[in-house]
Amino acid sequence: MRKNLRVFGALLFFLALAAAPLFAQVTQQPTLTDARASLFRLSLIVGGAIIAIASAVGALCQAKAISSACEGISRNPASGPIIRLLVIFGLVLIETLVIYALLITIIILTIQWGKYA
User: Fold this and answer.
1) Each residue of 66-87: pLDDT tens digit?
2) Which domains does the chain have, with CATH numbers?
3) What is the DSSP secondary structure assignment for residue 80, as one 8-state letter?
């Protein structure tokens, strides 16, 4: 678990490092249209980040669940049907969370930001 945490921390560090030039830009006083455009750009970034993180974490959780189920069935073949039922139920719940993230992303991206700014 510590190794995965280190990799995730390094990924976040390099992502922040890659985004650093964006903060160094000098901008003028934003007008109302600039504020709407920046809000729309931010919503695109947030929407993309939500679905990317949710799909990546969902895939990792599904792989871990299937791996653990295969190990459990190989150790005790008599409990195979029960383990299989629980794994399918767990996979459905994991996939539902990813679908919820997709719906949130669609909602974020389809809001008409110009009406609220």
Assistant:
1) 999 999 999 999 999 999 999 9
2) 41-111 (1.20.20.10)
3) H
